[in-house]
Amino acid sequence: MADGTRDNSNGTDKAADRSNHNLPTDEAALSARLSRLDHRLSEIRKERGTQADQSASESQNRSANASAMARGFRLSSELIAGVLVGSAIGWGIDRWLSTSPWGLMAFMLIGFAAGVINVMRAAGVAQGDGSPSSWPNGTTRRDDNARDQ
Amino acid sequence: MADPIHQFQINKIFTVGHIGGHEIAFTNSSAFMFAIVAIITLLMLGGSAARSVIPGRMQSLAELSYEFVSDTLRSSVGEEGMKFFPLVFTLFMFVLTANLIGIIPYTFTVTSHIIVTLALALTVFLTVLLYGLYKNGLKFFKLFVPHGIPIYILPLIVVIEVISFLSRPVSHSVRLFANMLAGHITLKVFASFVAGLGSFGALGWAGAVLPLAMTTALTALELLVAFLQAYVFTILTCIYLNDALHPGH
Fold it and tell me: The pTM is what?
């Protein structure tokens, strides 16, 4: 409120100045008002920014809870996709080379392994947010080391 | 009781022509896809027509959807991923609009058909494969060869990696399709309980309140799922595109 009244008084001052054609003081008053306005705007922005951050993190939490089912669905579909693709490749190799049933058996197991890797990546266990680009130092290496020891 | 699968039936509207003995028909699915594209186009053109500094409702909607997708893309792929923005934005808007339209009664849900979601997922898959090969050349195959693996186990790991890569379009498409299919069937089954109980007279109508409440709640859930699955589809697209740009580091 104080600012507002001061602004008003400045406004009347300015009008008086203008009528007197006293430009320098007019500009000084204007720049003072501008800097005050800047100051207040930046304060308001800061407040709004923190509020927005808070609400953003809250909504993220909420959506994370709501998407628990979606997450479960994602993980299961990753596993199933791996097994399906592995089996399909094995079946194709069997048909092509008539090696039934060995191709299907081998590739179903490999597909299962691929599905488990998919799930681990999707769950973020094997480093990163499911992106295989972060693979190199992933868990398989650690598993291998553990097996060696 | 009404057949809960009936809503997914494809009906021919008219025949466009024949290719190699196969009939190419314009179906209700095609009609809804055209409607979806028309709605998105209208929304975007209407939203960007005013170009005012203080956006109106339409402009806010257009700007929000733009910023949402561009933020998702930037955060998971980086600034250079913005060259894929048209693809990702188109996918997001198409899937989201298809899912949302599907909730309206008597409409057809395009994304509840695996052939549609598989086509979308294969578009992403082939984009990743072709662009990855074009940009990185043979280095792209580093994606399948993680370093730090002992040589005797490497062939097995490479085969597993390749299968893992090939399974992406499957899981990518099945997730969206299964979510929409399961959600719509559940909704239909609960809604048919209302009518079924209603045929038992006054007591039945009193009992029908429960499935009616459930149907209402499920519709709200479906609204969430519609948005969530569109978002998941988009973010997975971004993760896969990231591989095309930076394979294997």
Answer: 0.74
